[in-house]
Specification:
Length: about 240
């Protein structure tokens, strides 16, 4: 068996900084380590601008944008994660972060590129950064699944408790209570919702009422933590709307 390659001095120092940052945030035990491309945004950039930026990067393959990415180290813990990129360590807590997942399909002339996954996250300092995973590069499917499941586990109990107290939950422009779901001035009692699903081509939310389909809210890429939203909806539908 080939012995593991010893860490360099720089790697040891980075690991010490990561462990210290995770300890200060009380993230618990380290569970896994992955690699990905990461992007940091300076100034007052919204998550939506970050998503459009990455969409342009994949669709048009502009060299200036491609150089903006850097290899990042992801360390997943029991209650959060750290992302080390370009000497900075972002610390994320699963119970407070906002995640905007987005999948970008390749242009028609380059289907071989496959679908690119981007995750825009908010760290504990309210700074935003983007993780990117491409087919065949790194462990995108693994870290995506683990982040999605961990954020849902951390935020679902509090969301359901808020509904039990009669509060309203908001996911971007879409809101819901234990009795209704709506967006803007539209509100629909849960018993009237026959079906709720993702729509094409813009990945919008579509509800079926009286045999007709209605668009609800903007594109799902603008919804924070959509996997938590779907978990809440599943619980409400299973309980008959509360």
């Amino acid at each position: 068996m080939t012995p593991p390659t010893p860490r360099t001095r720089g790697e040891e120092l980075l690991l010490a900084r990561i462990s210290a940052a995770a300890g200060r945030a009380h993230l618990g035990r380290r569970l896994a380590t992955y690699t990905a491309a990461a992007y940091r945004f300076r100034g007052r950039n919204s998550p939506f601008r970050a998503i459009r930026y990455l969409t342009a990067l994949v669709r048009y393959r502009r060299p200036g944008l491609a150089r903006a990415g850097a290899g990042a180290r992801l360390d997943l813990y029991e209650r959060g994660m750290t992302v080390a990129v370009k000497g900075r360590i972002h610390v994320v807590r699963y119970d407070t972060t906002s995640v905007f997942p987005h999948r970008t399909r390749p242009p028609h002339d380059a289907p071989r590129l496959g679908i690119t996954l981007t995750y825009t996250l908010t760290d504990i300092d309210r700074k935003r950064f983007v993780l990117e995973g491409k087919p065949g590069h790194g462990d995108a499917e693994a870290w995506e699944r683990e982040i999605r499941q961990a954020v849902t586990r951390a935020q679902l109990p509090a969301a359901l408790a808020a509904l039990d107290r009669g509060e309203r939950l908001t996911f971007g422009d879409i809101w819901l209570t234990s009795e209704q779901i709506g967006s803007g001035e539209l509100s629909v009692p849960w018993p009237q919702v026959q079906r709720i699903e993702r729509g094409d081509p813009e990945e919008t939310l579509v509800i079926s009422l009286g045999g007709k389909r209605h668009r609800l809210g903007p594109a799902l890429s603008k919804m924070p933590n959509p996997f938590v939203f779907w978990a809440v909806v599943e619980c409400l539908r299973a309980e008959g709307g509360g």
